[in-house]
Amino acid sequence: MTAIYLIGLREGLEITLVVSILVAFLVKSDRRPLLKWVWAGVAVAAVLSIGFAALLQFGVARLSFTHQELFEAIASFVAVTFVTWMIFWMRRMARHLGRELRGRLEEAIGLGRWAIVGVAFLSVIREGLETSILFYAAAQETTDSVRPLVGVSLGLLTAVVLGWLLYLSALRINLTRFFTWTGALLVLVAAGILKYGVHDLQEAGILPGLNNTAFDISSSWPPGAWYAELLRGMVNFTPAPTVLETVAWLAYGIPVLVIFLWPSRPKQLAPSGRPAEPAPAPAAS
């Protein structure tokens, strides 16, 4: 539930920020009558995202055990790809996201109301589909169908409240730091999802080593303790993982986390304030 709450919070806040940028642009440019077309695009994207999540959840139940395991493994790998792309994309585009969205909306206004609906729809549907796939992949780690829904609902609700307060300027958050910390946590969540996907492939008989465990601390591991549930929910820690599961977790989690947290090198400026030109190559002796 903790991991799914984090997914809902992170994805929900991205959606809320996108919508607030579009709404604020129309309000500040005195184009309030066009707001209904923005909300129409947002509503269509939300309905399709919820429908896609329901299709994943209930459609897979009709498959055989082997096909279920295979589908869940593929969904896990797709979710890991989305998480990795999303956190690096947001880190790169955070400073220019508002300007890009306002430019797209300005062009759409000149084309007509359906173009405005399309801009709002496309701005939200990507995050909505990502949330659906991430929710499905993370929810496979529990047999309880209620707690994942509660977790993602609370995360989305928290994101809406934070986004509304940010829009009203009643709350100030260092968004760069927020997305950095949540991005780092999502890398660990994604590593756990990847580990779960590898386990699904082993249970389906596609990968070997289902009974070859890396370590086994089941005898001393309290399954009902709060920290056990937290580790299982956040990073998919299990007391007796297979060797392939452990290798997959470490091979993804450690390098991606290091690359994500590695500070970017600022551009060197010349005395005039412009970026310094590269030094000429030394002359041949």
Automatic annotation (TrEMBL):
It is found in: Membrane. It comes from Paractinoplanes hotanensis. Keywords: Membrane, Transmembrane, Transmembrane helix. Pfam families: FTR1. Belongs to the oxidase-dependent Fe transporter (OFeT) (TC 9.A.10.1) family. This is FTR1 family protein. It is a multi-pass membrane protein. Coiled coil: none annotated. InterPro entries: FTR1/Fip1/EfeU. The keyword Transmembrane applies. The chain crosses the membrane at residues 6-27, 34-58, 70-90, 111-129, 149-171, 178-198, 246-264.
